[in-house]
Specification:
alpha/beta; 2,3-Dihydroxybiphenyl 1,2-Dioxygenase, domain 1; 4-stranded mixed beta sheet; 8 helices; globular; disordered N terminus
């Protein structure tokens, strides 16, 4: 199941890559891929609160896709994005020596998509990127650069007592500083989140805590110890 989420590089991408992203968005819209409707609604204010079907039926041009890419990069318009990009020095184009993986999207198995989405939104501060199916059987939630895919299953994939005993993590997420991991722990604590492990300093030089979601998935949050 593709998520149709756009890859955002850790550094500012070059203009040619952004143009390709815009053309890809336009193609997805023309092919009526429902997940891209959620992306459009998230980044273009004029599509806020409009159902997926109406977004896909609406007029959507390359300039709209370019504006969406610009807003993802933190600019108000395509022109502002182009002005903000530094002019690259001329270089001879060459093929990369190896592929670079720039993002990962862990998949969590859940028994109730709606319940899980509410948990991530209301307890962990995530937003719904998209949900798919009627009733939904697949969804994506995100917070900052993190993206988690939720896949509905009839029953837990891992036996709960085994998961707890072996501390089988479903996903690990990190923050940049010791202060941030403490802030995140206090945020979740005030929201009444169930912890499998409270905030503690680990022997390998990190601070971490583990949250348990409604299906028993163990979610690790970590940052530097100092």
């Amino acid at each position: 199941m593709p998520t149709y989420d756009l890859i955002v590089e850790a550094h500012m991408p070059n203009l040619e890559n952004l143009k390709k992203q815009a053309k890809l968005i336009l193609r997805w819209h023309r092919e009526s891929h429902y997940p891209v409707a959620a992306q459009i609604r998230e980044h273009l204010p004029r599509f806020l609160n409009i159902p997926d079907s109406e977004i896909l039926a609406a007029s959507f041009k390359l300039s709209d896709a370019q504006e969406m890419v610009a807003r993802q990069q933190g600019f108000d318009s395509w022109q502002a994005l182009k002005a903000g990009l530094s002019t690259p020095s001329p270089k001879v184009k060459s093929s990369p020596s190896k592929a670079t993986i720039v993002s990962a999207e862990p998949q969590l198995f859940v028994t109730d998509i709606q319940r899980s989405c509410e948990f991530f939104r209301e307890k962990l501060g995530f937003t719904l990127v998209f949900s798919y199916g009627k009733p939904p059987f697949y969804a994506q939630v995100g917070r900052d650069a993190a993206r988690l895919n939720l896949r509905c299953v009839e029953r837990p994939v891992i036996e709960p007592t085994v998961r707890d005993r072996e501390e089988l993590l479903s996903v690990s997420m990190t923050v940049a500083t010791a202060d941030e991991v403490k802030l995140l722990f206090l945020e979740f604590q005030s929201a009444g989140v169930a912890f499998h492990q409270t905030l503690k300093k680990q022997p390998w030089g990190a601070k971490s805590f583990v949250v348990k979601d409604p299906d028993g998935n163990l979610l690790l949050f970590a940052g530097p110890a100092d």
